[in-house]
Amino acid sequence: MKTVLAYGDSLTWGSCPETGGRHPASHRWPDVLAAALGDSVTVITNGLRGRTTAYDEYLADCDRNGVRILPTIINTYAPVDLVIILLGANDMKPHICGTAIGALQGVRRLTQIAKNHMQGLSNGHRAKVLIVAPPPLVESDDPEFRAMFDGGIEESRKLASLYEKLAREMDVAFFDAGTVAEASTLDGVHLDAENTKKIGVALAPHVKKLLAV
């Protein structure tokens, strides 16, 4: 049995732009991925709304810093065979980070942790890593979201190329979710049910190859 950790933000949690609630499990990309992989692989969903790559969000009622909590999460589900990192969208908020380079630095640190963490096991088991670039932000019909992510559209369009280069440098896998999915214009960030489902379907062959299943 192989274990995959899907580590992300509201795109992984399954935020629905139409309702403000959560998509049904059948349309959240980690669950779609799990169905495609079959019984030999367990996919753990660890998506937190508002999670950043490596930055504190003091307006939140929980710890959204992805770097700080990742080692604990990996140890919780050890042994983890693959960590899928889909983060960076919330880094586009100017009061948090606001730049693609800042998100890149955060993902670099996340990858270092995921790739090298010993998981508290005596056998030295370490996970493989798959970096996923989020779909770029789009123009929003919601004035609050437009202000919250001011300047983020242009910066978010840089993430895929930066993440891909990082993946090559660190010898980990990469996938650009923007090639199969796009954000909803309702808020400019989140995905409708069909688009989040597309990510799970598209990731399946890559994960199968990485895990040899």
Automatic annotation (TrEMBL):
Q: Pfam families of this UniProt entry?
A: Lipase_GDSL_2
Q: Which InterPro entries match?
A: SGNH_hydro, SGNH_hydro_sf
* Domain spans labelled SGNH hydrolase-type esterase: 6-191
GO MF terms listed in the record are: hydrolase activity, acting on ester bonds
Task: Provide the protein name.
Answer: Arylesterase
